[in-house]
Structure formats: structure tokens, C-alpha cells
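Below: protein 1.
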Amino acid sequence: MAQLQTTAGANGARPLAGLQERIAPYGKYLLLAPLIFIIVCFFAGPLLWLLRVSLYQSRGSSGFGIGGASGQEGGGYYVEGTWTLENYIRFFQDDYFRSIFGFTVEFAILVTIITMLLAYPMAYYIYKAGPRLKVVLLILVILPKFSNMLVLVYGLQILLANRGLVNDTLMLLQVADEPIKLVYNLFSMTVSKVLLIIPYTILVITAALHTLDSTLREAARGLGASPVRTFFQVTLPLSMPGTLVALLITIVWALGAFVSPALLGNPDLQTLAVEVPKQTFENVNWAMGSAIAFIMLGMMTLIVLLYNWLLGAKMEWR
């Protein structure tokens, strides 16, 4: 009897062992299953649905969805069962949308240039600073991120107001006889957006600088190169990969500007990110809002692909 039980147990263990052997090569992929589930359910799924909504026929600005989603009684968010590219075609044909698109790109370029010009010197100064000063400077860089984004923007709004600290100081120093309009214009939008983005840019460039081999700089100096020449011929080229990553992060953040234009801009200075909720919630034009959102996503994707292509071409050239 004992022998029969042993034989039965061995026979039962063989299929289990065989199953484990077949699953073993795929074990690493099973570890990714939770992450894949989250990406599919909470990112890819909603994104695909957003794409589908952008391909519905739009009901235009139809009065807060009256008539339901089917569009009966002249309302609705979109016309169900339709497939069309009219929302994308209208975006690129309509002067209103093209002006917003153009301003978004111009604003992103402006913010990116200013941010990079300010971030690299600051990152280099942190890189060259002593240990204690370096800690203090890094704390100052990340300090704005300890507060809520809206609190930061509203605080900037108070500082730049007509009776704010900046204008009061300018009039006290007799630089200006009356308050200068510093809010609800391009200046306040740019200052706010740069302030929101620059900590990330500085940290990325600082990390890139700290990966450099300091002996290369010392060797250049030993061969007679001046500090300026050493910087431009050794430090700057070697830190360029990290600087390009910071540039990519900066321009993507700038293209998605929402809080700064919404709170510190004006109706003539609106970005695509502001137009999406306007079309979706104010005009109740879900199809057009979804199309604009996908156009923004397409812009950012093209920038990332262009960055990867340029980086790959540079590596092949080397």
C-alpha cells in the first residue's frame, strides 16, 4: 500500500514539475503582469477611447450635451456610430485653432530658451560648489516643489500685482512712477512657467555634470588650456547628453503649459492645454477637445522621436 501511495505521489508530481519547467522561462514576464495590467487599464485603454472620441462627428457647441450622447434634439457631446477626421481637418483649417497652435509652439520655444540659459549656469555653479554650499543650493532648487503648484502660481500673482511687492519696490526706488502691468500677460506666464520647470532642468544637468571624469578637466588645465577653453572643449561637450535630456524634458513641459496660461494669461494668450478643457467643458464638444488633446500628444511624440533620431545619428557619426 505504501509503495502504491509513493508511486501515485510521484506520478502526480511529474505534471507539476513539467508545468514549472514550461513556466520558468516566462517567470520574468509574469513579474511584469501587474505593471502591464495598470498600463493597459489606466493608460492605454483611456487613451484609445480618447482617440475614438476624437473620430466621432462633432455636434459643435451644442448647449451642454442636451439630447444625450446620441445627439438627438440637436444636442449631444458627439454623434455615436460615426467615423470622421473632420475635427482634425477643422483644427488645421480654422484660423482660431491655428493661432493657438502657433502661440503654443512659440511660447514653448521661449520658455525652453530662457530655462536652459538660466539652468545650465546654476547647475554648473552647484557642480563646482563645496559640499555644504552644494547641499544648501540643492535645497533652494527643490524648495518650490515642496509647495502646491497652484499655491506657487497664486503667490507669484500676488508678487507681480499692481500693488504687489515687485511694483511697490520699483516705485520705492523711483524706477517707476506708477505700477507696471506685470500680470495677465506674456511676462507673467513666462516667469511662472520657467519657475515651475527649472528645478527639473537644473537637477538633470547637475546629475550629468557629476558623472564627468574630473581628471579630464585637470589634464586639459595641465596642458595649458585656460578655464574658459577647458569648459567649452571638455566640460560642455561631455555634459551635452545630459543637457539634451534636460532640453527634452523642458520643451515637453513647456508644450503642455496649462496652469500658467490659465491663471496668469489672458484670452489672447491661450495654449492648446487650456483649449482642451474649454472645448470639452465649456463648449461641450468632446470630439474636438479629444482631437486637440491627441494633436498635443502627437507633437510631443514627434519631439521625442526626433530627439532619439538625432541622438542615434550622432552616435553613428562618432
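Below: protein 2.
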Amino acid sequence: MSTPPAIRSIPAAYDAGERAEYEALRGGCGIDRIAPRALADLTGADAARVPSPLRFRLFDPGPRDVRAAVLLDEHGLLTATATVVRLPGRLVLDCSNPTARQALGMPETVFAQDDPIVRMRLRGPALADVLGAAPPEAGALRLDLAPGDSRAVVCGTGTDRAAIYCARSGARACWEALVAAGALPVGSIALETVRIEDGEPCLERDFPQPQEPACAGVGEFAPTGEARVLVAIEHEGPRPLAQAILCSGGQQVGELRVGARSVLRAGRAVALATIDRALAAPGTAVDVDAGERVLQGAVMKRAALPVGSAAPNY
């Protein structure tokens, strides 16, 4: 393997190239970089109670071993996200966003680790082949898998996807074992295309300021009556747009939030955008006003966080 699994910023693409990486995420299995995480490992009385500022989905998402959570400010606006992993006798909070740690009121010493924990993510329909076993369903854990003989926690974070946490000291062996089993290293272009196509918001990347929950794609975590919601769209033009206004019938109906160049859609780009709730159905046509020209576009799907992950950062 010519590209080592170094703990560093993820490249735009690895050796295979962005098209092969995209196809692995859609038809095989892709693996992203080894990412350092800020984890609070709580035991005893602290593990018996989930910190009160955390808000979970308003419906039962199934297994509760690994769950996405959000934090709202005093005005009910979304300010941060976190992932909560419940282990026997322990509660682990993945709060790599500094805003989340501040909102929880936990000192930085809580996140200090002798052997830092890192995370790598797998995604694709060949996930079971790479793990050598059935992956945990969304929201569930497996503690009996040890890629590369590394002690690991495998979290089911959605259909055909998993996040693996292990100690940094064993991360290289774990990563190399998964690659040897068929996982293809994927870079940020393929990951970002798939994330946006699938309508998965990332608060840290998409929303630098507090947001109404529905406008950030997390309305299911809090009662909401916002007139606009977050959707994935596609539109003309191979280049992603930094900003644009959505229009329908000559009226402004939303705004683009974050865009990406589509790996496979020739001459088209994808984006996450807020839009009037009444126009959020898949297939709804919209005009994307980029200033110099108006591009034709269409809604692909409503956006939502995966059940078992709130931290799709790259």
C-alpha cells in the first residue's frame, strides 16, 4: 500500500482516484483516514446518567448503544452535535467539536487519554466482507471484532456503514487489516459527494452559526415548526457553488448551504440547501440563482443525520 494510514488531513483522493473511490462507497467498501477524536470516557455515577444538555431523536431509532445527539442553546438553536457510545459500565462521548465540549461544561481534562482513541469509518455494501462478520445494525455495537488483532469497538452508524474506534497504538494494524480485507481508502472528494447525495449534514462544515434544527437537517431531535428544511439537491454546472438562492415561480424559496462536485453526474453538481417545507419532496424542480446565471436543479431527498453518528467530519 503506497499511501500509509497516517493520522493527518485527509487527501482529496488516494492512489485509486476519486471515481474508483466513489464506486467503492456505492458498490464495494471504502475506508477513510485514521482520525483522532476527543472522547470523554465516563464511569460510575457519571456513566449512569447521560449529560442533560444532550438531545436525542423524538422517536425510537432502534438499538441505543450508539446514538447521535445534538445540543441546543437557550433559544432552541442547534449549536453542536455529539455521538454517545454506551459500553458495559461506561459511557463514551465523542465530542470532537470544541463547541460541544464547552456546551457540556466538561473540563478539558475529562478528554485526556493516555493512549488516544482514534476512529476510522467504513461504508459500502461489501462491509460484511471487510469485517469478516455481520456488521452491527444502525445504533448497535459489536465488541467481538479485532481487525489486525487490535481491540476495537465497532459501531453501526447506518445502512452499510460502521465506525471503528480503537487505540492509536493499534490503529495502523487495524487499518491495514481492513484494507487487506478489501476496504479501499477514500479521500475527501468521494466522501463529500456521497455525504451530500445522501443528505447528511455536518454541523461543523455546513453551519458555522447556530441554526434552527429543521434548517440544519435535525428537526427530528426537537419539536419544530420552521417553514424551511434541509434537503439535498442537484443542479446544472460541474462546479460546486459557494452560495446561491433557490427560486420557484419567480419567488425566493431557499438558499444553498454547501456544494460539491459530483463524481459521476457529468455536468452537474450536488448541494445541501434549505428550502420551503412545501417544496421539499424529491423531484421538485427549483431554479438555482448563482448571480451571473440561473441553473436548473431538483430536490433529491430530505437531509437527516445517520442514526448512530453525529460526527461525519473529515
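The helical segments are 18-27, 44-48, 98-104, 127-131, 168-180, 188-197, 203-206.
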